[in-house]
Amino acid sequence: MRLVERLRRAYPASAPPVGAAQAPVLTPPPAQRSPDQLVRALQRQILQLERSARGASASPAPRPPEPFSAPDYPAAVTPALVADAGFSERLTALAALAASPALSSGERPLAADELLFLDTETTGLARSAGTVVFLIGVGGFWGPGGSLAIEQLFVEHPEREAEVLRRLAPYLARARLLVTYNGASFDLPLLRLRAALHREPLALAHAHLDLLALCRHHFAHRLTNCRLVTVEREMLSREREHDIDGADVPALYAEFLRHGQRGGIQRIAEHNHRDVGSLALLLERVTRQVLDPLQWAEDAAELCATGTRHLRRGDAALGEACLQRALARTLPGHVRHRATVALAAHLRRSGRTAALEPLWEHYRHELPHSSSGHVALAKYHEHVTGELERALALVRTAPGLATGDLALLRRLQRLQQKLSSATT
Amino acid sequence: MPAAPRIDQPTATSPITPLVERWLSGPHRRQIVAHRLLAPEAARSEPLPAALDPRLRQALAAQGIVTLYRHQAAAYAALQRGEDLVVATPTASGKTLCYNLPVFDALLADPTARALYLFPTKALARDQIETARALARGLELPLGIAVYDGDTPPGERRAARRARILATNPEMLHAGILPHHPLWAEFLAGLRYIVVDEVHSYRGVFGSHMAHVLRRLRRVATFHGASPRFVATSATIANPAELATQLWSSPVQGVGDNGAPRGERHLVLYNPPAIDPGLGLRASCLKTACALTRELVQQGVNTLFFCRSRRSVEVAVHYLRETLRADEQREQRLAEPPPTLHALLSSAAAPPKSGEAPAREASQRVRGYRGGYLPDRRRAVERAMRAGETDVVVATSALELGIDIGSFDAVVMAGWPGSRAAAWQRAGRAGRQLRPSLALLVFGSDPLDQFVATEPDYLFGQGVEHACTDPDNVAVLVPHLKCAAYELPFTQREAYGSLAAAEAQAALATLADAGLLHRGRESYHYVGAQFPANDVALRGPLDENFLVVERSQAEVLAEVDYRDAPQALHDHAIHQIEGLQYEVLQLDHEQRKAYVQAVNVDYFTDAMVQRRLRILELLQQRAPLAQGEVHLVERVVGFKKIKLHTHENIGYGEVNQPDRELHTSAFWLTLEPALAAALGCGPAALAAAALAYAHCLRTAAVVLLMSDRQDLGHAVAQAHGGWYAGLDQRAAQPLAAADPSAPLALFLYDAYAGGTGLSERLYECAPELLSRTAHQLARCPCRAGCPACVGPGRSAVIKADAARLSTALQRSSPATLRVVPQ
User: Is the same domain home to B245 and B324?
Assistant: First the structure.
């Protein structure tokens, strides 16, 4: 038998022949069923399922998909946001602080409409050849009066993906800063891969602000988790109703391709639209909190995280102020430790060694069971004040000595030797 | 007379020729059913190709290679001409260099060039890549060589993409590389050679899958701008070029003119003496093989001993160590060399040995090697083999593939290895450089063994087996079309492998109509969150191995295949590992563990297995033919305790463990009682004829489907209470409890769970299948059955009954099975 005939038999077309539409025949259930019959029926069912898992599923006829048009979203979906006068300035500062690659301070400040929010919907999470980017949501302040506008680029069929990537190009060309949620490890590499696969040039070397990384750094300690919906709920008090589960997205798209049903796509589009809107709201919120932490930070741990970031790459005086204020409050031990170490490094770099003693004394007072304070102070007295005996006394009282901390023992020995040679 | 080829080493120093001569003239001669002496062959060499990169020339010289064997030179030349090829020369003829040479030459000439090496197993990839690594070290050039398999740590995976030579296996290519081909863009763009080692492994359903994996690799390579050459190596099969052509979907040239030298080789076929000719009982094959091996060892002949099963490996290790220990003790007592068995019989003194190295422990002299040993133990045995520290290595087919363990002076095979190709492959392990070698085959009492013993020409005369694939098998084709569409959409007018554009497009359209692919205006796509590759198991579903755990130490001693576990690890089974005995205390099916403790007993165990089948769903039927889903159950009902040495049956035990079950699809023929009546034979004769006929039917089916014997199972069973109870040849009679009028059925079933589409094709081709079977029965010249027709060990009456059964079945079957669309 010819191959195609065998194929048709094994995988019959899912559409009933035209004009042969029939009412489904329902077989009445058997009056009595022995357990053995039941087992057989179940086994048959399992085989059937396995067969359909192998692919021979029955489904209605494929129809050409209807063209996609952006639905009218309820007002709540698109947040009413306007880029105000100070926005560009704040944005530039934030991009210098947290974008990768960072916007260098010498560059022309960002204009509000040089920002691009970006979120994609795909047929899978793997960065593999068959993961299609089928919906790209873009947003920016190019609406009337500098208000937030969101647009969506939809791939009607995978074979038109390249076309849609070309439509994305002008948005990218206009933008200088991309803002995404998890774009660094998902959306952007996948877009690059799709472009490479279609041999489409796609300029994606922008400065990029990944709000997931930012949220992880500044707010993770008080969030249930860092998923965008959680962040929306817990930080923006924005609740989603009837939102789709991300895991269902690929199947809904496949359904759309098979039967042209737009319902699923509308729901995905709404979900994507919300995501882009949330990006804008979140950016607004994050900008405020990160750039003006003394005013807006919600707890001491956030002050520490924000302060550390400013020390590293921004306004050092602000960073120092954040840390000082945070350290004066109650803090979890590991947060206090990290903040103290960061501040101490900053003080040393800027040559303010005298400030180290009160810093570490406070640490020793707050965390009496940690040896780090003792060691830091011992180093300070050994190298800065030259008070060897005081250094020795500090090491002798370090809590780690009792548990046989080898580094402490060595330091103790060395100090003793240094002291005895100094006295002779 | 042509002048004898010059041989560098004198044969006089080898004890093999005198020993074989003594066997042929002494008491053994009655048991030797055939002896062949293959004349030595001198090397036929050619100079290294002039165009070869001088750096490579230098590296080869450092390894002592200054000329090439003829087949190596031919392979190089063919590849330079742009041909695809398969090298089919015997074991240890330098096949590896046939591909390493052109690959290294290309890599040196072009810094962007890459090569992909495919090995059938992970272990082989890791073993064989060492040859390439050694050559690369000699070049003092940083040529990245990497192994990419399931064991490659995540940190090294990224680095593997930059490798110049990548060694991997079919599964990893199928599910790990092809779906992610954009990440491999640079590697694929530079791909110059695809090397497929041990290509004869890819036959039957596995081979059909492999053909598709290679088609997909070619599509993706083409996309990235490469058009790689194909180089395969094969063991001796009848049709290497045909097989390679099927796999590569375009013509592949065979290179088979072996230029490697060989010393003279004795082939000896030995049938153990009959103890009771009436019952067909013969002296134990394993014990006879051990006794002969002992003679070889006493003459200082380094021997490789092949067993048919893992259990016999352990029994043989035990016997040989015992014997050698006893010999050593006697030696110490007498302080003089012991007489050989043969010397005792012929009262001729054995030559005294002198300058003997200090005696090694028997456990070091005799080593076991089989699947199921943990990798560390295997590596240790391999090292000992290479270093020549062993006298005898007892192995299963685990050593049959090209694991490099050096070579041996003699190969002993305890029992027929199952096929001519396997017999020649194992025999090829004998022979070091130009020294004389021996391949000794000792027959067991199985019908197939005894058939070859009486018809040695079966081994010597005919060509070796054919290996085939059927990539057009729908059950294999469809999942791979989905994988291929996932990797790259199919464009209009695109052909696929052996499918021309028109046929490929029609196939794609069919799949799109069925909703499996998505049709665009000019292409076909696959859309889904999961890789379709995850749903395709190239070798059929592989279940997790069982671990053998020593209870008191909680130490893992070995692994056992899922399929073998019920028979090898049932409660109270004696499980042997390198000669030590362990009793299974408990088999934990859930955890896939068997808890054992060391014991010292004088018996081994042999599981008794019962099979039954039932029809779950009848999918199509034209009496007496039918096709549908079946449920196959294998149950270990008990075990026999068999005394070591005497092989007496010294007891039985019961086993209570879960059945091994298989849901699969089958094709079957029902023998209604009326048919039996028409043949005029009794129930017992009918059962015997059905078993004989089923053997022939299965052989014909394998050939018809271009499949492999292991892809298809067969059973003759009798209806009994809703089930069909399996009959076997040893008890070829209907079940005592069954209704005498209950029909028998002949089943041919897919050997993999869920089925692989073979039974559907058998049903479609049933008239052709029955006529081929009838033709084979009529044509076969044997009198009382042979492996080619009804199987060995039958009788002329049974063969005649089978032929009459065949005619009756053909007459009662429909002449055509026209497909009626539902």
Answer: no
